[in-house]
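[#protein-structures] MJ: dropping DUF975 family protein here for a structure pass
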Amino acid sequence: MKDATPQPDYDMAGAYLKALGRESSHCEACGREVDGNDLDTFIIALLEANVFTAENHVVLCRRCEKRDGWREAVRKKRAEEKPLPPTSLRGKAQNLPHILKDYLTDPTARFLFARRFGVLALLLVGILLFIPPVAAVVGTLFISPNTGMQWFDQSITTITGIRNTSISTLAWAFTGLFGIVYFAHIAERERNDPTGWAGEWNPPKWYALAVYTVIGLYGAVVLILVAVGDAPAGRRFGAQILWFVGSLGIAYQIKDALRLDLVRMVWEPRRELWEFPTRYGFVLALTAVAVGPLASLPTLTTPLLAALTPTVSTAYIIARMPHDRVFRDKCIAAQDRLLDIFRIRDNDDN
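AK: finished. structure tokens for DUF975 family protein:
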């Protein structure tokens, strides 16, 4: 297999046998029969990169292995063989738990984080709506019917009081909830995608990351200087624009930079330890810029939060430098070239 470093509990032999048994030793792309005991006639490949499940393994003949469109052929075949969903009301009701399970747990599903965030939000709303009747039942059963009604009214009053909560408090509550769900999402994705990816032509992503880091770091430093009074307040707006552009670029590029470094074996960082603080730090700072810091925090909190994302990105670039042989060789070659230029000039002067 071309994909490296499967997850620790990956049973390669079991996955291979399940794939061969599922396809009855036939190429899943073209249907040609292969000899399950002869490795020269077939190969086991991954349909989705770095997803180490038995269902994701594909049996290919040696001819289809070299074909560019085998993934599309396999997906089309599986879509045609997939049983049609039930049309009756009873069948839909029986199939609903399976649909929900696939919708919430499929590690390859797109927009999986948005789905889970939405489910968590609905769950919280459901809990809030469930509190009043529970309070009424508990009060009625264990104390008295009047107490049950009082608890019901009190819980309704408390819940409706959320409408009077300030925008700042709601924004920070939403940001905190977002951070919890996003960290869980990144940790799970790290388990399901332990390596990385690279196409046929992928320039080093950290080059762009370095450019965004310089832009975002400059904007954050100016914001700090304005906050402490060492720079005129008129520079705040321009600094916020620079910080926003730089930090947004960092949040976008950090994932690709990490995955490309992993697949090219430049070094082996823990992705969640770099990706989470850069992306979530941007969200924290954006909340602070939009609604201001919490009342219990000083005003300097906003520029310090703005510096978080470019600072982590700077640390990432510095940490990877000693491991990047290609960049080091380019620096040495550039140094030798400069020395040659200086030698030529010295000879011309003499």
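MJ: nice. The chain has a mean pLDDT of 81.
AK: one more thing. The CA atoms of residues 26 and 33 lie 4 Å apart.
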